[in-house]
Design a protein that fits this description.
It is a single chain. Helix content is 4%, strand content 21%. With 267 residues, the chain is mainly beta. It has one domain: Beta-clip-like, CATH 2.170.270. The strands form six sheets. A four-stranded mixed beta sheet has the order 2-9-11-10, with no helix packed on it. A four-stranded mixed beta sheet has the order 5-14-15-8. It has a two-stranded parallel ribbon with strand order 1-12. The radius of gyration is 18 Å and the shape is globular. The protein starts with a strand and ends in a 33-residue tail after the last strand. The relative contact order is 0.20. Residues 251-267 form the Post-SET domain. Residues 23-85 form the Pre-SET domain.
Length: 267
């Protein structure tokens, strides 16, 4: 894959400054009591994960608040589930129509974290000139929850609650997100995961070291129980006729996901 470098962590652009680390919780060893854990209180006085199969997300949320670097708990805390890296044996393979794709050699249970979308964390305005880059992921937590068609139907035993943690400027979902992840030239296996109109993964915004939703980590979780060797997919969330080329004309891309309710076009 010429011109592409694999990396395991976000590459922060020089003009992007991450917020200072928050103080975190005072739990010791592992967080067990959601009534006293400061991080659990941010999640509605509950832990978003259960300690099952290495940690599983109970329900999709607008944002998941995890324990961070200043918390008293250790790496084994259930509220650090998405921070443990890739746990399943994932394989990149070639498809007849869709190019590269990803599958797992192992069973993945519903609610399990699969991987983080990794690349260069940049300001969206700095990608305006990259017209043919299809690996740019806008960090937009509210739009992630609202914009993915069919997501609630595909979550299996992971349910979607209503969104009520955003207000003020955060409700302006029509505006362009300030930051995005560009995996065009550097990234991890997530950049090879294809779109599907009926996906088996869903996108979840996660905050741990800081609480700025504009700079949330982007995680992919299993929406269903996924058997071995089944292609992994998520809904890219494009609205039809929303992508324009350099000349301003609407661009169109056919969808080859093969789902029964396929929208026939990716955008």
């Amino acid at each position: 894959m010429e011109g592409y470098t694999y990396c395991k962590s976000l590459q922060i652009a020089k003009n992007v400054k991450l917020p200072a680390n928050v103080s975190g919780c005072n739990c010791q060893g592992t967080c067990v009591d959601p009534r006293t854990c400061a991080c659990a209180k941010l999640n509605g006085s509950d832990f978003p994960y259960v300690q099952l199969n290495g940690g599983r997300l109970i329900e999709a949320r607008a944002v998941v608040f995890e324990c961070g670097p200043n918390c008293g708990c250790g790496p084994g805390c259930v509220n650090r589930t998405s921070q443990r890296g890739i746990k399943h044996r994932l394989e990149v393979f070639r498809t007849p129509k869709k190019g590269w794709a990803v599958r797992s050699w192992e069973f993945i249970p519903a609610g399990a974290p699969v991987c983080e979308y990794i690349g260069a964390l940049v300001r969206t305005e700095d990608t305006d000139h990259v017209c043919e880059n299809n690996y740019i992921f806008d960090i937009d937590c509210l739009q992630t929850m609202r914009g993915l068609g069919g997501r609630e139907r595909r979550l299996g035993d992971v349910s979607v609650p209503s969104i009520n943690c955003f207000d003020g400027d955060d409700q302006k979902s029509e505006s362009v997100p300030e930051f995005c992840i560009d995996a065009g030239s550097t990234g991890n296996i997530a950049r090879f995961i294809n779109h599907s109109c009926e996906p088996n993964l869903f996108v979840q915004c996660v905050l741990s070291s800081h609480h700025d939703v504009k700079l949330a980590r982007v995680m992919l979780f299993a929406a269903d129980n996924i058997p071995p060797m089944q292609e992994l997919t998520y809904d890219y969330g494009y609205a039809l006729d929303s992508v324009h080329g350099p000349s301003g004309k609407i661009k169109q891309m056919p969808c080859y996901c093969g789902a029964a309710d396929c929208r026939k076009r990716l955008f």
